[in-house]
Specification:
There is one protein chain. This protein is mainly alpha-helical. It folds into two domains: 84 residues, Tetratricopeptide repeat domain (Serine Threonine Protein Phosphatase 5, Tetratricopeptide repeat); 92 residues, Alpha Horseshoe (Serine Threonine Protein Phosphatase 5, Tetratricopeptide repeat). The radius of gyration is 31 Å and the shape is elongated.
């Protein structure tokens, strides 16, 4: 019986010792900002993102003036981006731009902030707040870095976003036509014509406007638009239909 009690005591003491060591290691102390940063970077590279975020957050709290502070801020944003937390990522990229404007990460942070809004841009039927935010952010980037290779990528992204906005207005114009509200449809065709003449919706919107005005017998307006259409789209997809409308009016 005594021997059993001794063995039991040994097992309990060993267990307490094990858990005590484990608890101590989970609350490791660091002697410098560099040590914290390097540990956080290692965790980031190992894709231990939660632990890496804790390290970078610790560095920013304990050493806000550290030479590694902008690194920590950048990698926190990168972790958000990798995890597809785009709103939080944009916040952290912009925080880097505000707090560490001279950082070597400024250019890429500015671009990736715009990229976050691009990723948040929804389908054309939904509210386009983030679409407009992305366009503005990409253009701000281009204004600061006009010759950078990323500026060309920004142009492509802007074009994609503009196509989406044009699609939204064109879709709305077509919807009003189906709802038998031609004047409202003309308003949205005009939005496409005036704002998005570099998109694939420019010609169909122009034709849609001509056809709608013809249907409601606004012949003088149609006659004024047809020469512009023929000059603008000499080989256009809708040219034959416009010529038919022109012929009908003349007859």
């Amino acid at each position: 019986m005594k021997r059993i009690l001794i063995y039991t005591s040994i097992i309990i003491l060993t267990s307490l010792s094990f858990w005590g060591c484990k608890s101590t290691s989970s609350k490791a102390t660091y002697n410098s900002d560099e040590e914290i940063y390097l540990n956080g970077l290692r965790l980031f590279q190992e894709k231990e993102y939660k632990e890496a975020t804790s390290m970078f957050d610790l560095l920013l709290i304990q050493y806000p003036a550290s030479k590694y502070a902008d690194d920590a801020q950048y990698y926190m944003a990168e972790i958000n981006f990798v995890n597809e937390e785009y709103i939080l990522a944009a916040f952290n990229y912009n925080k880097l731009l505000r707090n560490y404007s001279a950082s070597d990460y400024s250019k890429i942070a500015m671009y990736k902030s715009a990229l976050c809004y691009f990723m948040l841009s929804p389908e054309f039927e939904r509210d386009q707040h983030y679409t407009n935010e992305a366009i503005k952010a990409f253009r701000d980037f281009q204004a600061l870095y006009p010759s950078d290779s990323l500026s060309n990528e920004a142009s492509q992204k802007i074009m994609t976003l503009r196509e989406k906005l044009a699609n939204r207005d064109y879709f709305t114009a077509e919807l009003y036509r189906k709802l038998d509200s031609p004047l409202s449809s003309v308003i949205y065709y005009n939005e496409v014509i005036s704002k998005y003449n570099d998109t694939k919706f420019y010609e169909p919107a122009f034709y849609g406007k001509i056809e709608t005005l013809y249907e409601i017998k606004k012949f003088e307006q149609v006659k004024a638009l047809i020469p512009i259409f023929k000059t603008t789209f000499p080989n256009g997809k809708y040219l034959d239909k416009v010529l038919e409308i022109e012929k009908e009016i003349q007859n």
